[in-house]
Isocitrate dehydrogenase (NAD+) (Longimicrobium terrae), 337 residues
Amino acid sequence: MPHTVTLIPGDGIGPEITEAVVRVIEATGADIQWDRRDAGVSAIERHNTPIPPETLESIRATRVALKGPLTTPVGVGFRSINVALRKEFDLYANVRPAKTLVPGGRYQDVDIVLIRENTEGLYSGVEHYVGIGGDPRAAAESVMLVTRFGVDRILRYAFEYAVQHGRKKVTLAHKANILKYTQGLFLDVGREMAKEYAGRVEFEDRIIDAAAMMLVMDPAKFDVIVCENMFGDILSDLIAGLVGGLGLAPGANIGKDASIFEAVHGSAPDIAGKGVANPLALLTAGVMMLEHLGMRDEGARIRKAFTATVLEKDSLTPDLGGTGTTSSIADAVIRRL
Ligand code: NAI
Ligand code: MG
């Protein structure tokens, strides 16, 4: 029986890069049936909404989606469609790997997976102004909401991820020295849970600011990192920078009932339709999706072909210093499968 996957081409460069990625995945012979669905600005014309109910129903049924970037339309009552999708499916774990693929950067062997809590913390959306005297905006407050349920499931996810992917160490990055309650709860639950994994996964905790410095100075000290929502937002861009930036950065949004795989970059309206968008970040997200579906062989073959391709500078797209196109890079990967 084929796996059905919801495919959301999305906006801007989305359709070009998803088409390239679908071609590569299909070339492995992976038994996947795509259920193509609209979302984003491109969905508004046909459905009058950037997130049509049919798209949500499809994800609910298939439980897995590969998604191109979505342009967040201005003035339709959505802060961000991506945030809305995360909320709808309670995608609590944001998994962002950063691995050196193109040599020549500051470090040759970065291999870090950042696991960010994706539903609460400082991004729980509880924010308001405080009026004092005649000034309605004399102060403002954001709540860092941390629940035992929330920290328990993200930490469990991180430890299980380490076990399943043969990773040696989990680093919990936090600020429990200052935020004694919210971050203290995170740290306490982590320390307690680490005991269950003793002998299988090493555990350490680091204060977030010191961890940021250490990541830049000596990334080899890190393996799996787990942290609160905003800390993870910042650190995940930092580690993407260690391995060459957005063009190669994939992300997975994992929930109990559904998971959405995507590139970290946006819809790149400045280069949309020109055929030069780099499909490799979305392709790496596609490999994560294949692994998630248990298609490890197909994923490994793409990874290998991909690694050989990125060593040939000419076949890369202009953002990575090459002269290739979206489809020529897909062809190059397919030739090496
Ligand atoms: P962006 O990531 O789309 O573009 C930033 C720069 O990187 C641009 O110069 C662009 O040409 C380049 N770039 C991005 N992806 C590339 C690729 N695959 N190949 C070659 N060059 C690439 O960020 P920006 O401009 O801030 O956002 C544009 C739109 O995308 C916005 O509407 C934003 O809301 C949306 N967005 C969507 C995301 C998602 O769906 N996950 C994530 C980030 C932004
Ligand atoms: Mg971010």
User: Anything to note?
Assistant: Residues 233, 237 surround magnesium ion (ligand 2) (CB under 6 Å). The chain has two domains: 1-89+257-337, 93-246. The chain has a mean pLDDT of 94.
